[in-house]
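seq as requested:
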Amino acid sequence: MRFIVHGVGAIGGVVAAALALSGQEVIGIARGRMLQAIREKGLLLDSERGREVARFDCVGHPSEITFRPDDAVLLCVKGQDTAAALADLRAAGLTDQPVFCCQNGVANEPLAMRFFPNVHAVTVMMPASYLKPGEVQIHCQPKFGVFDIGRYPGGHDEADDAMAEALNHANIAAEVRDDAMAPKYGKLILNLGNITGALLPPGADCAEFDGPLREEGKAVLKAAGIAWEDVSKTERRAKFMQKRGDNVQGRAGNSTTQSLARATGSVETDWLNGEIVQLARLHGVAAPLNARVQALSVAMMAEGGKPGSLSVAELRERLFSA
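struct tokens:
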């Protein structure tokens, strides 16, 4: 199996580097300064194992790849970039090779099925940072993360088994499941707090906001009849995702904060909090808090998209007093 990692950022960077360092054949799809850095000097993975340089082929667009029957695509782009990435993959010649959605949110898998018949869900628990072009960092040990893998919408096949085997060999604790969307919905609940971490200054206590957002999300999933699994405190996570023991710098914020810090021009809030808002509207229930933070993310981007734009008091006023 050859691994095509589409989106070499924080998560995609760690996954690509880990696979390459374990001896797997990897092609990355990156852009801009990250692409240039990987081509010139490889991708540096900073972990408790040390600072390792992974070298693998990297291209700027799927059209630069001649796809093979044994390819597997790991889709690691943000939700707002999924549609374009899928269209590019199809135009480049990808057909029935497996596509693994290693992304936050639950909208990527059904969208991928519009393009491809062989779609797989991956719940990603991986505290990673994209520090600068050509360098990524993982903040847990002894494993680089915990992944749950299975076919979408359910079941599993040989591709899942092969992917899990490769990831486990690459120091990522992967488990194959027949209900892989259940933990993905659980991860969605956790990610409802991403936007508050981006709106507030570094180090701010987000608990008073994240708790109500998540409880509202759980109520909406219940109204929609969607099964989900709590992934916040699992035995595997406790065992494999312990804090690094060395003096590594703290994580550079959640994925939404990192997008803002790198001035990518977009955030994934519409595919996280917006998922809850959409489900609420479809099932005739209310989700005012998630709707408000979704609107706040739009306003933030319109104002330049800088992280830490609101104080705790300002967010409290705009979220709870509207």
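Residues 24 and 79 are 26 Å apart (CA to CA).
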